[in-house]
């Protein structure tokens, strides 16, 4: 084999690698994204090799200088990628040897690609999670600010996609705020369990050198060290946790998008998006489509599928390392990309959406949203048992439906036929939309003071999160 086709691992092989082996075995087409983390890990490993006497200080400095040059070359697209070199790790090592000679060949001492790649991915996840949570913070801010500005708008709350009870728009928006807040915490948890050193595990059994793993952890800013070298190179819990966090967040975002799609339709017209966040139709000139919301809803399926991809990849693997694990990076990279752009898209829609209070009021009236309040009025003020009150109110709603009335337009004479209690000012107060929201005076409810209380909690949370990102 000539030097051009010779593998870094090819000492025991007499013939060159076949084309299909190279094409099916390469990962440089996607793992090039790990170059920063690979170089960062290699610099720390290089310092450890000098510390334990494998490298001289001069050799260490030459390697670090070479790695810095390689990083610059990759960022400037000056390092060509070749299938024959398989992955980003071998590209960097091969280029280092070209730059500094045989000293570059010493870098892989006391390290396997197994622990090298496992560490690179953990470092990559650290960077990715920090980027995700910075964007989640902006989304939380958007929900918070929109909730403040819409606290006095009343809208229908739904169960079964049927009008249920009146709620303040701020209450609706904050319901999404708290769900997304838990996603922030989920990523923080994922970051904490990912913050571990695996270097020193070697191929699976550890390494034949006195590697100072405490030193390596400190160099890489990691909080702990893995306890078992087999576990270190063979498990992918850190990726599963990341993909789960992405899937949970994307599920929340998809539900938000579904509501934006519904609420911006002509039939609802509760909100509108600006022209800049919508598209038209190639054939129907009147169309204004919420494509961002639809695309994010579609991307959520893609991300949750990536989680299933990873479970399927792992479920039958014997310990320790198997080449199947090369495929773990594809769902990881894709989920990171789709999650980042989806957060950005939802943030833009939340910031720019405009509410239409009049249409919300009409829907509340047509949906008999204060029917429960009317039944509760009979219970609390007229001492009628709830089941009887429920029956009387249901009969009134039935009459309204048959005649095209609402609780606000049904004639008093028809109300009196059901019960004399459905008359006068007490009836009007019982079905009032604003009064309905303020009756829910429980912690977490839609009452005005409770909304202000909830906004204060959200503000305090944002102040804490701001210190983390």
CATH architecture of the largest domain: Up-down Bundle
Mean pLDDT: 95
The side-by-side strand order for the widest beta sheet comes to: 1-2
Shape: elongated
* Percentage of β-strand residues: under 5%
| CATH superfamily grouping of the largest domain | Fumarase/aspartase (Central domain)
**What's the number of structural domains?**
3
Number of helical stretches of at least 4 residues: 19
Order of helices and strands: HHHHHHEEHEHEHHEHHEHHHHHHH
Q: Which structural class matches the secondary elements?
A: mainly alpha
The overall strand count is 6
Low-confidence residue ranges: none
Return the CATH topology of the largest domain: Fumarase C, Chain A, domain 2
- Rg, Å, rounded: 31 Å
CATH class of the largest domain: Mainly Alpha
Helix content: 55-70%
Describe the structure.
With 469 residues, the protein is mostly helical. The protein folds into three domains: 21-109, Fumarase C, Chain B, domain 1 (Orthogonal Bundle); 114-154 and 168-359, Fumarase C, Chain A, domain 2, CATH 1.20.200; 363-466, Fumarase/aspartase (C-terminal domain) (Ribonucleotide Reductase Protein R1, domain 1, Orthogonal Bundle), CATH 1.10.40. Helix content is 62%, strand content 4%. The protein has a two-stranded antiparallel sheet with strand order 1-2. The longest helix is centred in the N-terminal third of the chain and has 37 residues, at 113-149.
